[in-house]
Design a protein that fits this description.
With 247 residues, the chain is mainly beta. 4% of the residues lie in helices and 68% in strands. The chain is built from one helix and 14 strands. The chain has a 14-stranded antiparallel barrel. The longest helix is centred in the first third of the chain and has 11 residues, at 2-12. The relative contact order is 0.13.
């Protein structure tokens, strides 16, 4: 755990300063690894100029596993481009920390509909010419006056093992102007291809959001696995508690 914390600080702290920030953070508690695990995630972005921003983020994947990135973000009318350094931190892998690169392309197709594609490439530390993992994601974002909807597909291909994970995810956040409380619902499907067979999992999500204006947004969310081809797994779940601020 100490190595993980040090790695997160080394990559993320140089990207931040004391200027205005879009800041988000959350605590995660889950049992998807058959034991209780606690982790965190965060996102911080600051504008350097009108079109250029610095972004630092750590995405919680599972117990002691994270994708960490420090990106330079450029926004040009309807297009967003980003690139930078990344770390893939794994739990129980032969390579616990793998360096890499993060890439992002975004397109605001209409006023309400946006498209974002991201990719994280990680390399074997002993030979940076060999790939360790590729994570690619395409995300559609549709916003209206009373809802924010995201639909995504994510592919995770490991070159250390034969695992290939495909994930579909749908999330909807609904709210009403003048009411400080909103609801979020969602569902996800994981299809894991591995040596000797495959696994198929379905999760459902629900949450509550509290909007406090300039004092931020606070949220709690629960993901529960409702179907799995893995036997004797019980009912794994994840609880996420977090906040969002514009400072």
């Amino acid at each position: 755990m100490r190595k993980i914390i040090v790695s997160l600080l080394l990559i993320c702290l140089p990207s931040l300063s004391l200027g205005a920030l879009d800041l988000r953070g959350a605590i995660h508690v889950d049992t998807f690894g058959n034991n209780h695990a606690v982790g965190f995630s965060f996102f911080a972005e600051e504008n350097i100029t009108q079109r250029i921003a610095m972004r630092a983020q750590a995405d919680y994947l599972r117990a002691k596993a994270y994708d960490v990135q420090a990106l330079m973000v450029g926004r040009f009318d309807m297009l967003t481009l980003a690139g930078g350094f990344a770390l893939e931190i794994n739990n129980g892998d032969t390579i616990p920390i793998a360096p890499g690169a993060g890439l992002l392309f975004g397109w605001q197709i209409t006023r309400a509909l946006g498209l974002e594609t991201t990719m994280l490439l990680s390399f074997k530390p002993e030979d940076l010419s060999e790939l360790h993992d590729i994570r690619a994601k395409i995300l559609f974002i549709y916003n209206t006056e009373n809802s924010n909807t995201t639909f995504s597909y994510k592919a995770d291909k490991s070159f250390v093992t034969s695992d290939f994970v495909n994930t579909l995810d749908l999330q909807v956040e609904a709210f009403e102007e003048g009411i400080p409380v909103g609801l979020s619902i969602g569902s996800g499907v994981d299809f894991l291809i591995k040596s000797g067979g495959f696994d198929f999992d379905v999760t459902m999500a629900g949450g509550l959001n509290v909007y406090a204006g300039k004092y931020g947004t606070y949220f709690v969310k629960t993901n529960i696995e409702v179907f799995s081809t893995v036997e004797n797994r019980g009912i794994p779940y994840e609880i996420v508690v977090g906040t969002r601020f514009n400072l």
